[in-house]
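Lab notebook: predicted structure, single chain.

Context: the supervisor wants predicted structures on file for every construct in the current expression panel, including those that have not yet been purified. This is the next one on the list. No modifications to the sequence; it matches the entry in the shared construct table.
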Amino acid sequence: MKIILQKNAELNKSDLDNLKDLGFSIEYYNNEKVAGDIFVGFPGTPFKELEDIKGLKFIQSLMAGYDHVDLEKIKSMGIIFANATGVSGISIAEYVLLKILDYYKDAQRFRDNQSKSFWEKRSISQKNIKEVSNQKALILGTGDIGSEIAKRLKAFEVEVIGINRSGGHVLHFDQTYAIDNMHEVLSEADIVVGALPLTTATKGLYNKAFFSQMKTEAIFINIGRGSQLVVEDLLKVLETKLSHVYLDVVPNEPLSSDSLLWKHPKVSLTPHISSSSNLLSKRLKDLVLDNIYRFEKDEEVRNKVV
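Prediction complete. Output recorded below exactly as produced.
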């Protein structure tokens, strides 16, 4: 059985040697036609590998998202497609928790004061420090990422409400609502986190209508997909409401240097790194190897999409 790898696949020499010892042959994909049974890598746009790899039977994507992949075509070709859901939930949840605490403990104020060597009087500096306990968080998306966020927020005694397609109950959430009924709870949330996959229904979801329903003092964190955000609408809304917005993804990356988001006092940006972690590669590698072994043994692979 032959494995076709992208050069940035999360497998080291020891992993490859073990696969070879088990009878697998390995070849790296170089944007040219090749024959192989398994492809491990990041599906491109367009998915050129689908045409270039003859005899392909199983695709192990190194990404969680697959909105850019033609699943119907893959299914019609009799190919199994699995994604990397589950490898980044913990790191993204920790990122979200960091941003929430950063706001509630007014951390930016003290970073600014330190940069100016200014020891502010406690009677003044403590005025905006709040507890996150007993707040209400609305998490859009109750999959692996949303669930890991909810799990951690519950430890802080936060009421956690989830939004998903069906409204079905999910572990770690106090309540869940269908996305069509989101308006019933959006106005009650102190913290709103975007963790939805990109679909035709969620593209441009975070727009004027969405933000206008949020609490005036609420905060918004987006770690989902950049194209779900309408930047112009957000900037307009920030003139009158929302305490702060944390964006790890934006519609066009890298963000243009002339974007008004860079210097907006209510916006904090990170360059799509919420999933980054010292343990991410290990989790991804473990998933890849496990699924290769499962496929070779004709067992059900983890994270099968089609």
